[in-house]
DNA sequence: CTTGATTCTGACGTCGGCGGTAGGTTCTAG
DNA sequence: CTAGAACCTACCGCCGACGTCAGAATCAAG
């Protein structure tokens, strides 16, 4: 599969795919002429990247996670990082929930005035 | 209250406070010599800003929200924005929850191997 | 009045995830 | 064989929330 199709099927830009490779997240093969050749599971991997990006993980962290996903190994460093990110995201959800509640208050107050 | 104390009590940097003013979020008075003079409620306001920043609202949005907080008025534009941000944050929480679940899977798998 | 801590105003630097452009090459359909 | 679509590398640009100087002015204490 070439880069354009991966982009369409995964919903990201061609530029983003090249960026992911630059960051060590994808390592597609190459055609004789130098064009990137992606395996089938590339699309799923990209979707996973998007999820992690949305959760605030930088490329470097995602790259560090890859061995845990691909091979079934986990170093001490990775173990610590997994737990740290878990805690960070949990906390982030709490903060968002608080902010959401505050927004809801504003919305309800405004709704009363509009009624 | 001067800027240093506001910074200490609210937990943000002096630079951040000046930045907030630049963005129209705070409008402290000035001493005869030009130093900023903050009212008591500035600390609370800054904490609110931090919450909204943590929720992904840019300064411009927060500035647009201020009239809803300070005075009890809401324009159509503000009403739409309030609801849009509410939806965005809800969606963001969903995404974080999904990512968190995926991380939890990785952690449990790793925990088994470590056991 | 002096000193040292605090504050002031610019203005440039940073980081991350791409967007966009330029100029050239490769692939594929007819 | 040729055209045009898709691809390549390399590089600069952008945004937002500050960090980080530099150099000058102000403030509170003794």
**Count of beta strands of chain A:** 2
What is the subunit organization of this protein?
homodimer
Query: Pairing-aware structural class of the strands and helices of chain A?
Result: mainly alpha
Q: Write the CATH fold name of the largest domain in chain A.
A: Multidrug-efflux Transporter Regulator, Chain: A, Domain 2
Radius of gyration of chain A (CA) equals 20 Å
Overall residue-averaged pLDDT value of chain A: 94
Strand count, sense and closure of the main sheet of chain A? Answer: 2 strands, antiparallel
State the helicity of chain A in percent bands: over 70%
* Percent of sequence in beta strands of chain A: under 5%
Task: State the order of secondary-structure elements of chain A, H for helix, E for strand.
Answer: HHEEHHH
- Supply the number of helical segments of chain A: 5
Specify the CATH class of the largest domain in chain A.
Mainly Alpha
Gross geometry of chain A: flat
Give the total of domains of chain A.
2
Q: Enumerate the spans of chain A where pLDDT stays under 50 for 5 or more consecutive residues.
A: none
Sequence of strands across the biggest β-sheet of chain A: 1-2
Largest interface: A-B, 37 and 37 residues
Distance between the termini of chain A: 56 Å
The second-level CATH architecture of the largest domain in chain A is Orthogonal Bundle
């Amino acid at each position: 599969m070439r880069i354009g199709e991966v982009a369409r099927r995964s919903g990201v830009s061609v530029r983003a795919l090249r960026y992911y490779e630059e960051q060590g997240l994808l390592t597609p093969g190459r055609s004789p002429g130098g064009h990137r050749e992606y395996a089938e599971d590339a699309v799923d991997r990209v979707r996973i990247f998007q999820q992690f990006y949305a959760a605030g993980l930088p490329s470097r962290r995602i790259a560090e996670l890859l061995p845990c996903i691909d091979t079934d190994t986990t170093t001490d460093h990775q173990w610590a990082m997994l737990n740290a990110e878990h805690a960070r995201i949990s906390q982030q959800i709490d903060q968002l929930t608080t902010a959401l509640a505050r927004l809801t208050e504003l919305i309800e107050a405004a709704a009363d005035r509009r009624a």
